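Q: My labmate handed me this sequence with no annotations at all. I'd like to see what the chain might look like in three dimensions before we decide whether it's worth expressing. Could you predict it?
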Amino acid sequence: MAQTLGAIAQFLQAELKGDADCIITGLATLSNAQSGQLSFLANMAYRDQLSTSQASAVIVHPKQASDVKGNALILSNPYLGYAKVSALFETLPAGSQTIHPSAVVSETAQIAESVSIGANAVIEDHAVLAKGAIIGAGSVVGVNSRVGKDSRIHQNVSIYHDVVIGENAIIHSGTVIGSDGFGFAQDKGEWVKIHQIGGVLIGNDVEIGANCAIDRGALSDTQIGNGVKLDNFIQIAHNVEIGEKTAIAAGSMVAGSTKIGRNCTLAGGVGVTGHLTLIDGVHVTAMSLVTKSISEPGSYSSGTAMSKTADWRRSAARFRQLDDLSKRLKSVEKSLQGSEQE
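A: Here is what I predict for the chain of 342 residues:
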């Protein structure tokens, strides 16, 4: 994996300050880096570490270039530079381009060339695996489901029937795609199951974290657009639509039939109730609950910020009094209006 600093500079189209022949063998933070490693400064809170870091080179913004005594790669967005260069030091093993003897592959499945299928994986009837797809050990690709070109399904992923996954997608372990949505009708106190007969459509360049659940549609398909990024432990309910390049952080939940636009972000632990629409360009801060549609782009929050317990209890008591205070205020306003008319 060793690279010269000059080659990395060319790869990033960065300005090089220092020794182009310096050998870089890995990446590390400023505080942990050793000789031979490349680091970066993206958060000014760590600026003081530039003077003590043992990194052989640092990716920095032009404004910080003079603070680096040794080698530097100068970019307007150091964090983006770090993201791009991380691909040069990827440690994930490549696919074997073979089918493990313990895998179970249906005779009716369509398996393209250079596909990798791991131990104890199951490829069911009429499933389609495109060129370069990687199916990890213990994973299941259900009946009539499709995995696109160069997509990687990690170990122990369950893909139900009638699921379509696009190209260059990454699905991490423990995730379930195409499970039944939560649909039931009441009949004299009994719950009658609504069979979920839609599927799931996942676009290109999508990454889905570990232990996520994406429900199939009740009638039409649940849809995840191109470039969407989902963190770990996320629930996407039936018939949800998520627009292109939206990112959702860990622990968030989106209820059924909600539509989230393009280039949105939901921070960790956000809840979105059902049958809502969030327009493009919406950012929802951590632990917020969205209970109505959002028709203007921007940042939205709900809940109260952390405070000392005694202060929080007093505030909570006042919240409970707001309705009564509002009624009393309206009564006073009516009395004052009556006095003015007299």
